[in-house]
Amino acid sequence: MAIKCKRIHKQLLLLIGIFIVLNCMLNVIPQYQILQKNKILFDVPHLDSTLFNNHSTTIVTRKREPVQIWKLHPSDDRILAQVKFRPNVDFTSLPPKRILLAQGLSGWGVQNGNKAFVEHQCPVQNCHLLEHPPSSEIIDARIFKEIELNENMYREALSVVPRHPDQAWIMFGLESPEASPMYANLNDVINWTATYRYDSTIVTPYDKFKAYDNFTNISDYKPNKNFAASKTKMAAIFMSNCYASNNRLDIVKELQQFISVDFYGACGTLTCERGNEKTCFQKLKDEYKFYLSFENANCRDYITDKLFLNALRNDVVPVVMGAHPDDYSRMAPPGSYIHVEDFRSVQELANYLKFLNQNDDEYIKYFRWKQTGSFIDTKFWCRICSLLWDHEKPRMSVPYLNKWWRGKGVCIGRGRWDKEMENIDSLKSDLLFNTGIEYVNK
Ligand SMILES: *[C@@H]1O[C@H](CO)[C@@H](O)[C@H](O)[C@H]1NC(C)=O
Ligand SMILES: *[C@@H]1O[C@H](CO)[C@@H](O)[C@H](O)[C@H]1NC(C)=O
Ligand SMILES: *[C@@H]1O[C@H](CO)[C@@H](O)[C@H](O)[C@H]1NC(C)=O
Ligand SMILES: *[C@@H]1O[C@H](CO)[C@@H](O)[C@H](O)[C@H]1NC(C)=O
C-alpha cells in the first residue's frame, strides 16, 4: 500500500507539482522532507523547461518503448549506442550537469570541472565533476564506488546533499561481488549501475572489442603471421593473491603435472619485477605460447585485464577461467581464447595445449581475431554526461541491490558453470538480462 501510494504521489508531483500533496506525504517519504527543507522544487529547476518535452509526454513515451540507450538488449551492451548518443538539446547556454564524486576526485584520476569531457572529446561536454558539494547548486548525479557503498554512506550522503527526484545515484563497480561489501538496505537507492556486468545501465567493461562492420565469420580469416615463431616456452601465469575462492591455484598446480607452467608472483616460484611491467609483458610476448588468465572469482561477466591486457594485448593465447563461457564469447574477440570449461578435466585441457604446441597452424588460428576488429575507447565520462542530458531519461532504481549484485547464480565459488547451471534451474529467468531495475514511472 505504501509503495503504491508513493508511486501515485510521485506521478502527481511530476505531472502537476501540487505542493499540498507533498505536505500530506512528508511523514511517509523522508527524502521529500529533505527536499522541502532545502526548498528545492520538484521539476529540474535550473533548466529552461521550454527546451524539454513536458514530463507527462515523457512518461507516456517511456511506458510504451524505452529507447535503445536505456533498454536492456540481450545481444548488445548498448555501449556504442550510448557513445554515439547526443541529446537533442541546445545546452550551450545552460548550466552544466553536476556530478558529485564525494569520495574524492583523485581516486578517479580526474580533475574538477569539465576537463574529463573535453579530453575524451565527448559529444556533450557540458558536465562538471566535483568533489565538494556546493551549498547552493543542484547536484544532478552522484557516483559511488562499489567498495565504498554501504548503508551508512547512504544516510550520510543524504544529509550532506539533498536528493531531488531527477538526481541519479550511480554505483560504479569493477570489483567482483566477492570483493565488495554487502548492500543491506540499499533498496531503491541506486538509480543507475555502471559496472562490468552486462546488465548494468552503463556497462563498463575492462576493455571492449568491436568487430569491423565487414566482419563475416572467423573461419573466413587466415592468420597473417606466425605468432609461434619466437616462442619456446609453454605457459605462464602471474599471480599475487593465492587464496581465491575459485581455487585457481589448484588448477594451476594440477596443470603443472601435465605441462610446464612458469609461475610468477607471490604464490609462484618465479619473479618478474613489478616495477618492470614492460619487461614482463615483453617476455610473455616473446617466449610463451599460453597465458593462464585465471580470475580470482568465478562470477558472471567478471573478465578483467588478465584477459585483455596481460594476454590478448601481448600476443599470447589466453586460457581463461572465471566468468561463464557465454560471457567470454560475448566479450572476448572471436576465437581468441581457450576456456577451461571447454574440457571435462584439467588433463584434457593439458592435452589440447600440448597439441597446439606441436601444431603451429592450429596454434596461430587463435590470432585470426586481430584482423576482425579492434579495441575501442568506451568513453565512460562521455556516456554519463550524455545520459544525464537526455531529457527523456526514465526514472528508475534497483529495487534490491544486493540481490542484483550477488544473487543466486552470480558467483559460483569453486564450481563449474556447466554444473551450476544444471543445479540452478531458474537461473536464466532470474538473472540473465534481468537488471532488477525497475522503472519508477511505469
Ligand atoms: C504536455 O503533454 C500533454 C500530454 O501529451 C499535452 O496534452 C500538453 O499540451 C503538454 N503541455 C505542454 C505545455 O506542452
Ligand atoms: C574491413 O574493415 C577494416 C577496418 O575498416 C579494414 O582495415 C579491412 O581492410 C577491411 N577488410 C576487408 C576484407 O575489406
Ligand atoms: C562460420 O563458418 C563455419 C565453417 O564454415 C560454420 O560451421 C559456422 O556455422 C559459421 N558460423 C556462423 C555464425 O555463421
Ligand atoms: C532514483 O530512485 C529514486 C528511488 O526510487 C527515485 O525517487 C528517483 O526519482 C530516481 N531518480 C532517477 C533520476 O531515476
TrEMBL record:
It is a single-pass type II membrane protein. Pathway: Protein modification; protein glycosylation. Coiled coil: none annotated. SUPFAM superfamilies: UDP-Glycosyltransferase/glycogen phosphorylase. Its EC number is 2.4.1.-. The keyword 4Fe-4S does not apply. Its main location: Golgi. Residues 229-404 form the Fucosyltransferase C-terminal domain. Gene3D superfamilies: Glycosyl transferase family 10, C-terminal domain (3.40.50.11660). The chain crosses the membrane at residues 12-29. GO terms for molecular function: fucosyltransferase activity. Keywords: Glycoprotein, Glycosyltransferase, Golgi apparatus, Membrane, Signal-anchor, Transferase, Transmembrane, Transmembrane helix. It is found in: Golgi apparatus membrane; Golgi apparatus, Golgi stack membrane. Residues 114-206 form the Fucosyltransferase N-terminal domain. One of its GO terms (cellular component) is Golgi membrane. Belongs to the glycosyltransferase 10 family. This is Fucosyltransferase. It comes from Dreissena polymorpha (Zebra mussel).
